[in-house]
């Protein structure tokens, strides 16, 4: 039998002895600050009354967030257009410190914009009685305007000890391990919320946290022991188990790894809108549509001056929840120089749709007029996984043969969307940038391929981390670019950028471990550190060629373009170069007519052919009202025009650079593909008269809408050119030479010295 003093001295850890707490209907207001017990807080969010109006229609779309210790632990559903919402939602929260209050914050949901604050309140957990249901009425306040009445929130809560009759036995162990548990909890919550916020829903993160906590209590649970009557060996065993748990969490727990992987793909084709509401003075609108599923967002193109727009656009979402999810859809009218007008909203409940089947939906717009026509398809997830270096698909001979067989030339027409297989080994990094005041960093790595995004665990306090992880992806477009980004994990703010590399799949040398110099965010110059990767790509060349002639997959996590003086100047210079090429070509043709070089002019006279056509494009000028705009609106309009000019310059310059890079063999695969296509077309013209080819092309063009009314129009030539990198992208994808001091041989010599 060890008393508390002997136990404290045996472990050399701070120990606080707490007297036994009577849990039968007594208040816990006098619980000590170091109370080690776990509690379960069951909350029923009843309703709200007389909430503040935040929308122009005099209503709000309220939802509620619960926070403990600065971390969001529950978010309610959204009640649209209601100032007296009824939720009746239940939440189960694990509480470790009763002195940390439960904060309740109410927001008004605004799709595509920042949600409006509607008030907050807090619940003092130390004033609750254990094992007794309590009805709570909280008055919402705004800290900036304490005198404003913002309504009330009604809750029902019950606080119970998590461990029941074994709590007194567990409390002795928990008291001196308390600081380590808090560290593990904070680390896991930072992993889930800081780095995976773009991929995980809130309920999944909270579920992951609860799973890890329950794993800890299963690990530390002991047989029935007398209070403070356990032996030293049992205590050391408990410490060892806790150390094992901490090591496991540092190596990326199974719960965290699984939460990154999606369970399905939702493909949405936005077909058209019908009889939309007129928002402009000319009786028309400039509509576009926004989609949101969790943190994934898409925005359609703008259709000018129409109430029956034809979009024909496709978007792909990742589905993380087994039961499905809700896709929020809103329609807007684009207004230059002022806030866009809201046309209407609708939702798609994915749990009500069957998988592996295309559903045609005609959705009525709420709070507005008209319909949206969609095609929605739910499919199984692609092969995307994370594993340790010990699990290698390509090193297993049978699995490698199966992968090679799947992408062999004989299986050309089997699943055309499945082009290839990518395996990325993220081994280690060296010489990273210092991000913390301690002179160290907490690096983790994010691996992205189009919209597929996975991440490693964090290696704490290290500038030379070793991850030793393998990521596998399905390739849908061989012209995709693999992006590997290193971040520093921070406790209280978003992760800091440490470096990034972008690697086109066609430039990868299979099975070669290479040191890639990390670049800045714009990928224009080097930053500190290198990362060691080993990449393997297996693909079907015929499938890859066919996929080159269809539109590229859009990337939903790309940042919106912002006005930049340097970027605008750079695009102007690129545009000037393209124009000068055309001007020089015109001078060259004119010199043939002036007989500056008689041999050249004579040859041109023999084969002269008019290939130039002058096209005049008239700019449509919108009829604007003569209303006076404020200064802020004018600034906003000027900024929007500058961004449009910046983007147009980039598109035109990129188009000319892509044509040039096709002929100068910047990407040999694409140049060979162009040569093969020209050769095939030449052979066809040799055997088939041109008029028959034009006839077949015309029949196909006129009957396309009859055969496939919802097909997305595309231009094969423009889709091909979209795969050719521009000069800016060539610089971004160019590998920098690593410092020789980072080579393994050089490092060993330095260590020996």
Automatic annotation (TrEMBL):
One of its GO terms (molecular function) is metal ion binding. Its main location: membrane. Belongs to the MCTP family. Keywords: Calcium, Cytoplasmic vesicle, Endoplasmic reticulum, Endosome, Membrane, Metal-binding, Repeat, Synapse, Transmembrane, Transmembrane helix. It comes from the Eukaryota. It is a multi-pass membrane protein. One of its GO terms (cellular component) is recycling endosome. It is found in: Cytoplasmic vesicle, Secretory vesicle, Synaptic vesicle membrane; Endoplasmic reticulum membrane; Recycling endosome. It comes from Canis lupus familiaris (Dog). This is Multiple C2 and transmembrane domain-containing protein 1. The chain crosses the membrane at residues 669-697.
